[in-house]
Design brief:
Elements (H helix, E strand, L loop, with lengths): L2 H11 L12 H10 L7 H6 L3 H7 L2 H11 L6 E6 L3 E6 L29 E7 L2 E6 L4 E6 L4 E6 L10 E6 L16 E8 L6 E7 L4 E2 L3 E2 L26
Antiparallel strand pairs: 1-2, 3-4, 4-5, 5-6, 7-8, 8-9, 9-10, 9-11
Helix pairs in contact: 2-4
Length: 246
């Protein structure tokens, strides 16, 4: 037999190549691919437009939880601020295709007319965990607004706070394991209000829970110096929420 034939014989008698490693199921593989899309507003809607199979995964509730948990922190879409001390407007900061038109989050707080024909005056107190906190100074109520769903939760201000300058914050109250703040529009929330007693200069605070639908007890404490609550933005640091300044 020729040398070439010997080589062919030896090759054919050698050990067979190892079987290829099994690949994940098609849907599992697609799940992992979509999970790694950037957390921009346009990512999942564009993926959903590819085909029905992609849409089923990209809109699945379990997948969305994993998507938010994987990326941890959602992108900053823009900022809310008061214009001319009367209009609350949204200013987007992302470029197309993730640019959010300002009118998408126009709640129309100024000029809104209610049953009593009184003009509303909305004052922005803060924005956190995907929600906006506004106080209606005419109706003496706070509004928790959800820009994504456009829902507004109206909560009457406790009588003890009426007539005082107020500061406050809205916080997500979700306690389930693995919850990622940012897309909290379907989760329970807490509202914190704080003010200063004019006579005693003592700060007092109260917390509202959306789960119970009631305000908690009013808590007061002594302050070593003269303090103020006007114009002090709330910043959540760990479990602390500063709402007062000297």
């Amino acid at each position: 037999m020729s040398e070439q034939g010997d080589k062919m014989t030896r090759h054919s008698c050698g050990s067979s190549p190892a079987a290829p490693a099994s690949l994940p199921d098609d849907d599992d593989l697609l799940w992992e691919i979509l999970l790694r899309l950037p957390p921009k507003p346009s990512s999942l809607p564009r993926a959903s437009a590819v085909c029905k199979r992609w849409r089923c995964i990209a809109t699945d509730t379990k997948f969305l939880r994993c998507f938010y948990a994987h990326h941890r922190k959602p992108p900053l879409l823009g900022v809310f601020h008061c214009r001319n001390q009367e209009r609350i407007v949204f200013t987007p900061i992302l470029d197309a295709p993730d640019h959010i038109p300002p009118q998408r989050f126009n709640f129309g707080f100024h000029g809104r007319v209610g049953d009593n024909q009184h003009r509303s005056r909305g004052e922005l107190l803060g924005c956190r965990h995907g929600r906006l906190l506004v106080i209606d100074l005419v109706r003496t109520e706070v509004l928790v607004c959800e820009p994504i769903t456009r829902e507004q939760h109206h909560v009457s201000v406790p009588p003890e706070f009426r007539g005082y300058h107020l500061n406050g914050a809205v916080l997500c109250a979700a306690a389930e394991q693995g919850h990622v703040h940012g897309g909290c529009y379907s989760s329970p929330f807490n509202v914190v209000l704080v003010s200063i007693c004019r006579k005693s200069n003592l700060p007092f605070v109260c917390v509202y829970s959306s789960e119970s639908g009631i305000w908690g007890n009013i808590i007061s404490a002594e302050a070593p110096y003269a303090i103020n609550c006007d114009g002090c933005p709330s910043t959540l640091v760990g479990n602390s929420l500063p709402l007062l300044h000297y």
